Amino acid sequence: VGLSRLPPLSSIFCDILGQQHCVGEYCITVSNDEITAEPGLCVVIPCSFTTPSNFKPQHLVWFKCKSNKRCFNSDVIFHTNTNAKKTLESEFMGRVSLLDPDVNHLNCSIRISDLRESDSGFYQFRVNGYKYTVSEGFTFNKRTSVNVGGFRQKPTMTLPDLTEGHQTTLTCSAPALCSTSPPGISWMWRGAAEKDPLINGSITVFKNETLTAVTQRHNSTLTFIPTAELHNSNITCRIRFSDNTTTEETVNLHILTNILSICIFFKKCNIF
Q: Ig-like domain spans which residues (predicted)?
């Protein structure tokens, strides 16, 4: 078999995730299982397709519609034809993109970013093009179910060894690896004493790091000098996404410190 006859990588990728569904020579491969995702993050709907040899794909279209009803033009959430984008559902504007923009690769996989619970539903694909010289399109019957449920992921916090008087940096990474809108990251302190300790001279830095073409890492660092007053206090990293969904993680600080400093602060000493 010549190399030109080998299936595209997108087809091989989708064969692992789903089963091919054909109507005549129009075939689509999508996941047979429901795809679950979380608000504020993103979801990828893997998809590949083939058409008759006399059909030339021109534009790719995605719908979101009810399971037992036909999709209409008012249900379009993504269209590669720029002239048709004004008819897209406004709530999906700027949130849907192709993983591979080259229509000739027959990869219809899309990514939906900044997810909302209202994005739950059934998604259906259509290809528009030309059969010989006649404009034509085909809507594939197979639909993909997406369920956007409650948020479960938490931020990841990196906590080094803490020593009194030695500057240190804490790092908090948000779980939103593929959202288009950077999340907000904030730090909150709760002290072990009656009054929360004040972190004098602390510095926070927000950073976006591109990992791949479709993923980013969002993190914040907090640099400060540990003191005896901060021993056994709690620090919380809170993530707020574009839809106001929040998630947080809390850690307890154990600071290696001079025992005399602790005695002075808490007014308790057992030194013999």
A: 155-252
SS (H, E, C) 65-112: ECCCCCCCHHHEEEECCHHHHHHCCHHHCCCEEECCCCHHHCECCEEE
Burial letters for 59-80: b for 16+ Cβ neighbours within 10 Å, e otherwise? bbbbbbbeeeeebeeebbbbbb
What number of CA atoms fall less than 13 Å from residue 55's CA on the CB side? 19
Local structure of 230: helix, strand or coil:
helix
Please, what are the domains in the chain? 3-148 (2.60.40.10), 156-266 (2.60.40.10)
pTM to 2 decimals?
0.69
Confidence label for 88 from pLDDT (cuts 50, 70 and 90)? confident
CA torsion sign for 21, 26, 27, 32 is negative
Angstrom distances, CA of residue 32 to CA of 15, 20, 105, 142, 145: 11, 10, 22, 9, 9
pLDDT in tens, 44-65: 999 999 999 999 999 999 999 8
74 pLDDT tier (thresholds 50, 70, 90)? confident
Cα(181)–Cα(242) distance, integer angstroms: 7
